[in-house]
User: What shape does this take?
Amino acid sequence: MYDELEHKPILTEEIVKNLITDPDGIYVDMTLGDCGHFLEIKKNLSNKAILIGFDVDLHAFNKAQKKLSKLISNCILINSNFKYLKQELTDYKIFEITGLLYDLGLSSMQIDAKARGFSFQNENEKLDMRFDLSLKKDASYYLNNLTFTEWKNIFKRCDLKLFASKLANNIIKKQPFITTAKDLNKIIELSIPKYLQKQKKYFQLVYLCVRILVNNELENFSASLNSGLTLLKVFGKCCILTFNSLEEKVIFNTLKKLNKDFFLQKNLKKFIFQDKELIFFHLSKPIQPKPEEIAQNSRARSAKLWVITKKIERI
Assistant: This one.
């Protein structure tokens, strides 16, 4: 389906530098894709290390298996949704990890590939947008079955508040005949003022909203991140490449919940005179691609690399 398409990994050097704290450790690439980050991480690990790769997209997974066939020693490849991280690692008797990586962007393979409907530029594509093709409901199903109120709320959540009602209303008018990217593009054109249509970001945002809905992306990421940070060793690192504010909100909310006990105990210290060691998660300021990388890969423009370190503090 997209065997000839290559994906350029983003911020690879920065990821390797921040992620690897122990070359003998256990690392998990939560979004295997075209193996760009996976291969760079592998190069910087010892023969004692274990590197695990997840991908829910079967086509991408099969391509990765083929690509990594000669590097399979000390590597585990898992075709599963990363929300099942804990269960999958338990099957391999792995209960603690040294580091994990999330690259939450669509790969170039998926954007450019035909027959998936991820991009507004491929107008004749069927609106599918599923990463996991075993899911019963694709993008076309949701576009033709959700109500005005449901779509309005979805678009509001995705930074499309100004046009949420128009988009929702035009979707309802076109139901049940929304089947291709061309159909969805026409709805966007009817809903967004012409002078803004040159800014393709509005087309990208609508497609993002639909894709997130189809794949339940934010909920899956939240569940996976919570499990991953719980499994992380003290002083281990979690690197996350985000491409929109919705993904960032998941990070902030997850850390707020996980750090709640730490800050509660710290505030109680003045009343309870007892030394304790408590876990907390530190989030560094995001790292952004350099102009040189953006010039070579325009899809790096909106990328941010967040680094979470699991720490321990005596209070």
Observations:
- The two ends are 55 Å apart (CA to CA).
